[in-house]
Write a structure and sequence with these properties.
four-stranded antiparallel beta sheet, alpha+beta, two-stranded parallel ribbon, Outer membrane efflux proteins (OEP), 2 domains
């Protein structure tokens, strides 16, 4: 019994260990940050974007409107039936004479109609709906591009503040080491208490700067998650290595502009808008034209005496014998409709003029954006190259200043000035590098390279 009890106790302890291991593994898995590249962040944002989802629904509506407009060209078909009971004096359906019999009558009909000519309104409506569907495709792409661009900027902000935090940490660590050296030199009598206080003040400033940059980084993370529609409570990590190299930027601004004016989604969408409103204008003017329609149908009826004093033919016999068909054509001429046609034509014309103005504004805006992105790209590249040289010089100056400070040839305030110069140079280099990356991606986008390839 004792042996069995020991075995059970051992098994129980092992199960508890196994359960603990699985619990710890599960908790580690749940808290592990998901590492995402810039393109992966863009793809996630587009997949979960509310604005993109709404645009997909709008595109689906455009598709349905197009199908509906095409269906308007086909004949319409309708069927109907009715029944009535006559009491007292009425017309005998069999003899067409007056009678006082109570009768029941039942009729059936099947009719069809089709517009033959309506001033090309239906045709232009189909054309306009087709162009609207094409616009919807472009508007969906524009929505995706805007989301991708917002994510790219938020992503770059996170990268920048991560770098700024690392720079602040390195300077804080160097300042703390310098404070320790200064305190030792003070103990040896080679530095004064004032110099120790100055170095301590410098260390406190870097500590404050680190806290400030960490706060900026926390806000940048919140903005990135918000832009991606990513849960704020879930951990997320980004990859900074893809932002470390310069991009080939040999494209000429004239070539970029020429390509964008023909192929950019915003330009295409505004051009399609002009086409759509031209067709709406033509459709409105078609309301002044006559309308010609064809119609055809078949009908039959059934009668019976509810008093039972006379016998009518059977239902099948009457259904066959009482049937009749018709074919007709109608012509409608618009004469006066309370100025509604005139107002519709004028509104359609104004909508067309607005679309043309919007197209002009879009061309101007895209051209300006290309010029800004291109010049910013070239300027930031120059700044980045100069910043690299500035950082190298500042690092040498700081190394020399540290040695001079330890030898008493430099005051703490002078050393702090050299350290601040190095900090600013490193921050400027990081900012120029990341800004160059953003502007390069923008130039490539206008030159035909998608912001993200979605498979």
């Amino acid at each position: 019994m004792l042996l069995a009890s020991n075995i059970v106790e051992t098994i129980h302890q092992n199960m508890k260990k196994i359960f603990t291991i699985f619990t710890l593994a599960a908790s580690v898995t749940c808290t592990t940050a998901q590492i995402m590249t810039m393109d992966e962040c863009m793809a996630y944002a587009i997949e979960n974007s509310i604005s993109v989802g709404k645009q997909k629904n709008s595109l689906d509506n455009s598709e349905m409107n197009y199908r509906e407009s095409v269906a308007m060209l086909f004949p319409s078909l309708s069927a109907g039936t009715s029944g009535s009971v006559n009491f007292g004096r009425s017309i005998d359906p069999e003899t067409n004479n007056y009678t006082t019999k109570s009768t029941f009558s039942n009729s059936y009909s099947l009719s069809s109609s089709m517009p033959v000519f309506a001033g090309l309104r239906y045709v232009n409506n189909v054309r306009a709906a087709k162009v609207a569907r094409e616009r919807g495709v472009q508007e969906l792409q524009i929505a995706k591009d805007r989301v991708a661009l917002d994510v790219m900027k938020a992503y770059i902000n996170v990268i920048y503040y991560k770098g700024a935090v690392n720079i602040a940490k390195e300077h804080l660590e160097a300042s703390r080491n310098l404070l320790q050296k200064t305190q030792k030199l003070y103990e040896l009598g080679r530095k004064s208490a004032a110099e120790v206080a100055d170095v301590a003040s410098q260390e406190a400033n870097y500590d404050y700067l680190l806290a400030e940059q960490e706060n900026h980084l926390a806000m940048a993370w919140i903005k990135l998650r918000e832009t991606m529609n990513y849960p704020q409570e879930q951990p997320l990590e980004v990859v900074a290595s893809e932002c470390n190299s310069l991009i080939n930027d040999n494209a000429a601004i004239e070539d970029v502009t020429e390509y964008a004016l023909c192929n950019n989604t915003q330009i295409i969408e505004s051009r399609l808008a002009v086409r759509e409103y031209k067709l709406h204008y033509a459709k409105a003017k078609g309301s002044w034209a006559p309308t010609i329609s064809l119609s055809a149908g078949i009908s039959t009826n059934y009668f019976t005496n509810m008093d039972g004093k006379s016998v009518y033919p059977t239902f099948a016999s009457q259904f066959a014998n009482n049937s009749g068909t018709y074919v007709g054509m109608s012509l409608s001429l618009p004469i006066f409709s309370n100025l509604s046609r005139r107002s519709s034509v004028r509104s359609a014309r104004n909508a067309l003029r607005n679309a043309e103005l919007e197209h002009t504004a879009t061309v101007t805006a895209v051209t300006s954006e290309i010029a800004q992105a291109y010049n910013q790209m070239r300027g930031q590249k120059k700044l980045y190259v100069q910043a690299q040289k500035k950082v190298s010089a500042a690092e040498l100056a700081y190394s020399g200043a540290e040695i001079k400070f330890e030898k008493g040839l430099l005051t703490a305030m002078e050393l702090q000035t050299v350290s601040t110069t190095l900090l600013q140079a490193r921050s400027e280099m990081l900012q120029a590098q990341l800004q160059y990356l953003v502007e390069s991606r923008m130039v490539d986008y206008y030159n035909g390279t998608p912001l993200i390839e979605i498979k």
